[in-house]
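Predict the structure of ABC transporter ATP-binding protein.
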Amino acid sequence: MTEPERLLDVENLRVSFRTEEGLVQAVDDVSFHVDRGEVLAIVGESGSGKTVTGMSLMGLNRSANSRYEGRATLRGRDLLAASDADLRKIRGSEIAMIFQDPMTALNPVQRIGHQIVEQIRAHEDLTKAQALDRAVELMERVGVPRAKERLRSYPHEFSGGMRQRVMIAMALSCSPELLIADEPTTALDVTIQAQILIELDQLRRETNAGVILVTHDLGVVADIADRVAVMYGGRIVEQGTLDELFYDPQHPYTWGLLGSITRIDRDKPGRLPAIAGLPPSLLDPPRGCHFRPRCPHEFEQCVEVPKLEVRDPSKPGHCDRCWLSIEEKRRLRTVDGDFGLAAKKQAVA
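Done. Here is the predicted structure for ABC transporter ATP-binding protein.
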């Protein structure tokens, strides 16, 4: 079997922001990789650091008040150490991003065609006519009807699903090697969600690009991802293949996420299970494991920060940050016959 080609390596990434209230550690010691043709899903609640991680790779949140540590190498080139001029050349051509809200990401006073053509010509030596022809091909590729005519439309003249297709077309206009999709199906109805996912998967297979899918929707993850990284409080708390995360979850936060999904093969519950409490403030995070204040299985050792490491030698790619033993995890993660988080505190030896 051919060894997959490594595209992106992120090692010990830390991103912090100085604010009037204090220092916000938005991303704390995050490490992962993406191979060519692979989809890595980064999941977690709002505020867990998913979007900041993606934007940091493109240098979109650089400012006088931000601080970066660690390494993020794209084919050997360190993105965190790259100058702003170098990043302008990389964005769009080598790394592209599908932003969460296309209505605010697109310029409302410029026609769709102009915005796509502008990006193409910024990276390639093409005439305006040649760039327009490619823009038409891209629009048709992502399923926009009457593409040549719609290039003269403004963003407000498109529906939410069509604007998202335009964002995908723009992101793919220069055939990037890495695509970061930040909540690409948010606020879309399930039919359009399915179409967007099919298009993303098809385009990934055709171009062999790596994809980082940022989402909180585990249904989307199950449909398209190869590997999954679960983030909480600015840290990755569990990472593994799709099957490992869904069938053998090792971190209590992952159990809570899986337990909060409605099962279509079961009777409708009276109330959807939820993880008690609120995500931590990154201005003043809890000591040790960030999930400790919400975890019913907390014990003395949890005041120390567990490393993200392999705890089951039989699964060398499956890592988590939890002090519980493998046997304790498999005993405690089942609630009423399914994966879930117990509602009450339990004493753990």
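The chain has a mean pLDDT of 89.
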